[in-house]
Specification:
Radius of gyration: 18 Å
Helix content: 25-40%
Length: 264
Amino acid sequence: MTDSQPGTGNAPLLDVIDVHKRFGKLEVLRGITMPVAHGEVVAILGPSGSGKSTLLRCINHLEKIDGGRILFEGKLVGYREVDGKLKEEREGSIARMRAQMGMVFQRFNLFPHLTALGNVMEAPVQVLGKSRDEARETAVATLTRVGLASKLHVYPAQLSGGQQQRVAIARALAMNPKLMLFDEATSALDPELVGEVLAVMRDLAAEGMTMLAVTHEMGFAREAAHRVVFMDEGVIQEEAPPAEFFGAPKTERARNFLRRVTQT
């Protein structure tokens, strides 16, 4: 685990409270409650179909919730409360809150017609209203931060998968987010490219970035996270510090999962 410890302020940065999500008759999230402190790194583990990615998409309101509350800096995400009922917020308000949560997906979703620099500049100009000069300065700094100073003017098709994912991380960081969400950011990469993306994620964790990372990378969860959350069938089955979770998981479901993912 990193030396940096999460903040000890009373109010969490993010508070997920009894969240439910359905797709038709299938209840994908069944009452998820998970506060996240300032500076905390949370690794979310679990088998495919357990609701991990859906949870991240609900946190930044890419998916609407069917019950519960999600609070970011004490404010409802995606909704306002009117007479005790939730009503969806206006798109502008949602976009402003979403801009404070950087999200990195499995697929890189880069604009193929823009260079690495252009991809990272786009949102600060279009969403934050920054001048192109200011956005360029930020983009150069963030691409340098993820080890791509020599690739500023290269198009996505000319980059490796690992480099493309690092551009995607730089694009999120250029918005100066307070929270980073990683949705299996290495799962689409060839094995030899995984390490370069994990190195960037470890650096962010060490710098004190608040992070939620859905991941199958057990080494990252063990070394970089403050807390491991294990999900299955839409509920949190177990959560603990990494040493405790990996050393002595409490549930049979977690033990079986770890046996499977650590088999050689």
